[in-house]
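Reading a protein record of the kind used here takes only a little practice. Think of the row as the fold of the chain written in a discrete alphabet. A record is reproduced here so that you can trace the correspondence yourselves:
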Amino acid sequence: GGVTVHSWSGIGIKDQLNQWDLDQLSQRESLHRRYVTTEVLIIDEISMLHAHQLDMVDQLARLFRDNHDPFGGMQVVLCGDMFQLPPVGRAGERQMVMDAHVWEQMDLKMCYLTEQYRQSEDDALLTILQEIRNSDITEHSIETLGSRLQAQVASPVQPTKLFTHNTDVDRINNAELAKLDTDSRTYSLTKKGSSKIVASLLKASPVSEMLELKVDAQVMFIKNDPEKKFVNGTRGRVVDFQPGGYPIVETLAGRELVVEPMEWVIEDNGKQLASITQIPLRLAWAITVHKSQGISLDSAEIDLSQAFEPGMGYVALSRVRSLEGLKLVGMNDVALTTHPRIHGFDTTIQELSAEVLDQYDQLIANPIRTITTKPKQSKKTSNRDKTFALLQEEFPVQAIAKKLEFTLPTIIKHVEELVAEGREIDFDRLLPDIDANEDIRGAFDELGTEYLKPVYDYFEGRYPYSYIRLVRAKYFL
């Protein structure tokens, strides 16, 4: 029952909403009813949404709900992994979703999901991926990846090759297909609707306008089937063609499926604006890293020797279920990097998530009736007192966190609350770097902000969030 946020919200393929757009949209009764009756809006794959698109949804929600709060007071749940590659945009365009004007107004409660499903916890690949996320790749992990250079992979089908450039993908797929001296069929894409919208749909879809298949061709499904026969990323091999011409594919699980054309659609208020129809397959000897996002592979041959964007290596490597399923062809200096903004943002999310988790733990430990009748006996107060006692004994905050078995952000939050209560904290001992303190204090003043992220970005990650928070507690709380 899901739908694209573009269709649900009414923004369609627009890049901005002018007054004429707002006047036209405001007259649509069904759109008005949709916004007014929706209590919770869940947007998945949030990393793929442009900042201006989130702002447009916010703009319409405030309009239709006649409420100037963010999203007109509607609850919004955003899900996704910011380490995925960002949406493609024009040079200089505000891209990442956290650049949206509404972002700082939303009072988001962060929940950092830590359970991994694609890779098992004891697989070395998971450790490598986590180190890439932390921008702290170790020599041991580099050596481990090195052991997969030109490594043989046991697989019932030829491992999918992942490249960073389309030209390499087309070259490999065309060359492998040409080697096959077997029955062949060609399928032409059909399209309906505005040429501009169709072009946008084609750009966003992994569909081939002209798809040639042969018996024994390695293929991958590029769409989810409503009856759950296959999902985006299911691998297989063409084994025959029906008399009517549709391909018969044997999946890795041994199932034979007749693959019929499927439709990709852009709708607006239930009205179909454009559609393309094609066999939901693509040649799968090779695909680009960008097109691999969202799929899982049992085996892959990955060439990162021409990686040109931070995050490419992370996306490519994280497609594979295990280290044993990886054959690494090459790797350059960019391959294992991530965008510095995303690393800093991820650190912020983890800290904010730790605070929310601490509050949740307190709620579980202290049911509402206890909090209501005896608020001063809450676990939160006693933990804060423990932190204060250890501060008085001249423990550093890192040691307090370890001793009390809390996260560092939680201990710093205790410090902030203690300052707010008027208790004396020896910041000279907690913040020994006088020059750094003055730099950070000056940045808060210069930027005219009380938020951490602008100051963190100002110094390009030179000072950790924990230190910036302590400086803020000393001078501004």
About this structure: The CA atoms of residues 307 and 333 lie 8 Å apart. Residues 90-94, 369-381 have pLDDT under 50 and may be disordered. The first strand starts at residue 40 and ends at 43. The two ends are 47 Å apart (CA to CA).
